[in-house]
Design brief:
Blueprint: H1 2-15, H2 18-38, H3 44-67, H4 71-85, H5 94-108, H6 116-127, H7 133-145
Length: about 150
């Protein structure tokens, strides 16, 4: 994963693509900080988690910029999100996610909101980084409440 970032970083430098260069440097820096913090080299799964954190930060910043009536800054954040998402695995579609949630609820015999934690843990382990926790939570909550 880091090898791909380094290659794309060099390419962005050669093409003088300032936006991509800025984002890739930030990603590389975030990974290095995490490695220093944990005192170990990160696996690809852990790197993906760091990248998702970067996307989340930018989404929050974009929302704040929109609330502060600064749409031009929100647009910059959204462009950076698009660049980062190139490095993330493809997420499940709504229909696929709905199917997985239904199967998990049936498999675990979950009946109420009390079982939400069990279902969420099961699905997170099964689906890994292919799913956004927020949307997964919404599907599980909806299915358990009905």
């Amino acid at each position: 994963m880091l090898t791909r970032i380094n290659i794309d970083l060099k390419k962005a430098m050669q093409e003088k693509d300032k936006d991509t260069l800025k984002v890739l440097r930030a990603l590389k820096s975030a990974v290095q900080y995490q490695e220093l913090d944990l005192k170990k080299e990160l696996s690809d799964e852990e790197i993906i988690s760091v990248f998702k954190g970067q996307v989340k930060q930018r989404q929050q910043a974009a929302e704040l910029y929109i609330q502060g009536k600064r749409p031009e800054l929100a647009e910059i954040e959204n462009r950076e999100i698009k660049i980062i998402k190139v490095y993330l695995p493809e997420e499940l579609s709504g229909a696929e996610l709905e199917k997985e949630v239904s199967e998990a609820i049936a498999h675990l015999n979950a009946e109420s909101m009390k079982d939400m934690g069990i279902v969420m843990k099961y699905l997170k382990e099964k689906l890994g980084s292919n799913v956004d926790g927020k949307s997964l939570s919404a599907f599980v909550r909806r299915d358990l409440q009905s």
